[in-house]
Specification:
173 residues; 15% helix; alpha+beta; Jelly Rolls
């Protein structure tokens, strides 16, 4: 069972549209060290937390080493093992070190790309109900299409970390 740190408050960053990566007017959120993991089952700990808060379609992997975004769905990434340096927000965004117990919430359109990772890096990804995940590369054509789909992406019913009363619910309204 996941234990979420009391009063967990995420770092919130709004990335500008850079002409290739649309990003979002909603802030990108990172809960740093918010989740205390079961050391014997860290992946299951994060999956259970996300699923308990209504986020599904979970997968286990890393973060792609090429710039991409999702124009049809919001995404959450929970670090189960290791650490990585990831550039969020596109080429003009910000590089952040994400490590075990951190959770990043990416509003639709947020660019992301792994710069480097530890050998044991494992992230759990998940999505709010009802949306289909598509990987979109940063091209002018894709940017134009994304500007039409991103505003139609529904707000999630709960914060994947802290639930219906979580920070995302306040920061994304």
């Amino acid at each position: 069972m996941a234990v979420v740190r009391d009063n967990a408050e995420p770092l919130a960053i709004v990335f500008e549209d850079d002409g290739l990566v649309p990003n979002n007017v909603l802030p990108f959120l990172v809960y740093q060290g918010a989740v205390k993991l079961d050391s014997t089952q860290p992946e299951e700990t994060i999956e259970s937390l996300f699923e308990a808060n209504g986020w599904g379609g979970t997968w286990r992997n890393g973060v792609f080493d090429y710039l991409h975004y999702h124009a049809t769905v919001h995404e959450v990434l929970g670090v189960a093992r290791g650490s990585a340096r990831v550039r969020f927000g596109g080429d003009h965004g910000q590089e952040l070190e994400i490590k075990t117990g951190d959770v990043a919430i990416l509003p639709a359109g947020t660019g992301h790309q792994r710069i480097k990772a530890s050998g044991d890096f494992c992230v759990i990804g998940a999505y709010p109900p009802g949306a289909k995940m598509e990987i979109t590369r940063a091209t002018p054509d894709n940017h134009a299409k994304a500007l039409k789909t991103i505003p139609k992406v529904a707000l999630p019913p709960a914060d994947p970390v802290t639930g219906k009363d979580g920070a995302m619910m306040r920061l994304w309204r």
